[in-house]
Amino acid sequence: MCGIAGIAHFDDAPADMTVLRRMAAHLAHRGPDGEGFYAKDGVGFAHRRLAIIDLAGGAQPFVDPESGLALVYNGEVYNYREIRAELGDERFRTDSDTEVVLRAWRRWGMAAIERFRGMFAFALHDPARKKIYLVRDRLGIKPLYYQVTPNGAKFASELGALAAASDPGAVDAEAVSQFLRYGYVPTPLTVYRDVRKLEPGCCLTIDLGSGNVHSERYWQLQPTLRPRPEAEALEELQALLRDIIRLYVRSDVAFGAFLSGGVDSSLVTALMGRELEHPVRTFAIGFDDTQYSELTYAEAAAHHLRTHHRSAVMSGAVSHELLLRLAARFGEPFADSSSLPTWYVSHLAAQEVKMVLSGDGGDELFAGYDSYPDVLRAAERQACRPLFAAMTRVLPRGRIRRFTEVRSLRWETVHHRQRDIFSVQQRQSLTGQRETGDERVWEDATLDPVARCQMQDLNSYLPDDILVKVDRMSMDNSLEVRVPLLDHKLVEFALTLPLELRIRGNGKGQVRKYLLRKAAAPLLPQEFLERRKWGFGIPLARWLKDPLRALVCESLDAGAHDLAPYLDPAAIRRLVRDFYGGQEGRAAQVWLLLALRLWHDAARAAARKAEPALSGAGAPGA
């Protein structure tokens, strides 16, 4: 697990080592165990290392003396031993997965990626072909940003490292609008018009001779529902889970697990316990408001699974300095408030271990979110929708009208309402720009509505929100987080499951994540399997009203004019005053605007700090 960065000049001008060192310094938190550099033929790579596999021999950048290939790599390929065996008689210099990745590429080219099981983002320079290849893992677990100009290119694990090399350019108004809708900037956009996120499952080829850039998808989500007996599917799932955990606990350092007490994290921890000869170290975070805290469930799970457990309680007394620091880590506006407890639980775990496993991905793959049954009910009511719509138009405002209004919604709208933070009308009020309420979901009409919503979440909400949050908050604490439920073999399996193996029954007896719960049944007590989904939400409204009120008022009321380049200050002030006037339902919107302001302040501070370094010779790749 590491941080990577690089620059390239299309005219073969030497890579500026001062710039590379500056980029590496901005990634030091991702790799506190060492740094390395590479420069050849106008290309420069920088690497910061968090040592997990082959502590002595896994230093990077890694250069193959025979082919000249050079690699900087962030992540883990868990089946590296099996790939190494497949490579046969090749003589290896290290026991690292890094060398296996490079040698596999030398043997099979881009086809090597098909063999990799894990999370990764890497850059490979092939001086003989005068090309750089940028590769991101299938689900987008590890990040990779890039910018290409007529004179060159640069890339990095985080936006802050790119900005350390040169001015990232103008803010993208479309990205700001998307942020208002979702609370994150969806791939491939970034907040900067000329910087892009490499899409999951893609390889970007940069031709250093011509300056041409070509993106190729080597893997994509492909649902192919395959009905079969429940017993057969269950046996396949249980075998897959055992194999995945066997691979994912490979490590040369101490490790543990995040444990919330929910089905996903408890199942991962239980499977780890079967692979290890010692108790699993588990970590949990709770809140001073017991209505939101899962600590009781986490402690019960830890007791049942006999783990070595540590937990802590956080309050809303979060310092302005920490909020600015985390905003800088994201590098662009990011408004998932659960990033705070994710940072705190990562901080707690990092005091004992360098790596943990988490249960992320189970809800997207096996249909665990609250919105999915709502979507199903809306789809079942489709024939009655015109009647409910007509009733809504003639009924006076009140509970009966709200009842008919909800039942008149298309299932696509039901799903988007669960994800959208500002409506299209609210976004127009804030930005002053006309917008459309695009409510398209996955376009394959042969799939059931729940599967189509799952695909939408797997393509956007998961990689652009959940995985961004986990990566940045854990890496700020120099902690690696592995996500076994997102192993691509398990993803491909889950995309074959018919609806009745994802959601079973209806009403109060409805069971979400049906098959995954069945797989967990031999390992966990019934009360764990029957728990309703809790999530990782914080007491947001209460925290905004009390410990964070002064910051909100200073940033968004008195200081609303500072966001004038993006939004209407008067609309911001109205929203904040509505919230403090009693409209608690606007808490998520206030938090989103605060996140935008924190990013704005962090970016401005970073730009001021970088000005002396960036003035003079000009930007690499600019």
In short:
The chain is an alpha+beta fold and 622 residues long. It has 25 helices and 17 strands. Strand 6 (118-126) and strand 7 (131-136) form a beta hairpin.
Could you please describe the fold and organization of this structure?
Helix 1 runs antiparallel to helix 4, helix 6 packs across helix 20 and helix 10 packs across helix 17. The protein is 43% helix and 15% strand. It has 25 helices and 17 strands. A six-stranded antiparallel beta sheet has the order 2-3-1-9-8-10, covered by helices on one side. A six-stranded antiparallel beta sheet has the order 4-5-6-7-11-12, covered by helices on one side. The protein has a five-stranded parallel beta sheet with strand order 15-14-13-16-17, sandwiched between helices. The C terminus is likely disordered. The two termini are 29 Å apart. By secondary structure, it is an alpha+beta fold.
